């Protein structure tokens, strides 16, 4: 079984993915770490970084996703995935192309590679997608207080555009079932016990498919 955790920066994807993995004994597949991503700081930090490094950054994410999916398929078992390959392509890469940060030729190259990924045996859709969302002001506050330095220094209008793009994307998403979670209803950083409510909703949606006894109950 594969669970996907989706949502824009600041919604707590990684925190939730780690909590669910510990709670239910799932294996965890995280996004590429900053230390393994040579393009992230340049993309966010340089004056022309988004235009210069858009394709580099998105190809890095795509290749990392290929490697992660192949590893999960090889190892087997049940997993929780921090951000999906759908977001990589359909939210971020497409958004950069539509804003002019990728040329037509660059987008065509990226889209061809993404198409191959979707048809790869390892790219089975998640059993359930947990989609994290909240009002823009709440998300911006969390980025300002908990985000990476490069994220905190990114202009608010970039996050506003991304917030709107995520809303449009999830409205048309049909690749697997979705469980929507409003981030105002839980805060695993400030109140770790709120994982109880998320775990209960997840168990309700996947009755019989996840452990009935929690491995690491909170409190």
Short characterization:
The chain has 219 residues and is α/β, with parallel strands linked by helices.
Which quaternary structure do these chains form? Answer: single chain
Shape: globular
Helix content range: 40-55%
Give the N-to-C terminal Cα separation: 27 Å
Average per-residue pLDDT, rounded, comes to 86
Count of separate DSSP helical elements = 9
Give a quick account of the main beta sheet: strands, pairing sense, barrel closure: 5 strands, parallel
Strand tally is 5
- Poorly predicted regions are none
Question: Helix/strand-derived class?
Answer: alpha/beta
Our Rg estimate from Cα atoms comes to 17 Å
Beta-strand percentage range? 5-15%
| Element pattern in H and E | EHEHHEHHEHHHEH
**Which strands sit side by side, in order, in the main sheet?**
2-3-1-4-5
Structure description:
With 219 residues, the protein is α/β, with parallel strands linked by helices. It is built from nine helices and five strands; from the N terminus they run E-H-E-H-H-E-H-H-E-H-H-H-E-H. The chain has helices at 13-24, 40-45, 49-75, 85-98, 104-119, 136-146, 149-152, 156-171, 195-205, and strands spanning 2-6, 27-29, 79-82, 128-133, 178-182. A five-stranded parallel β-sheet has the order 2-3-1-4-5, with helices on one face. The longest helix has 27 residues, at 49-75. It starts with a strand and ends in a 14-residue tail after the last helix.
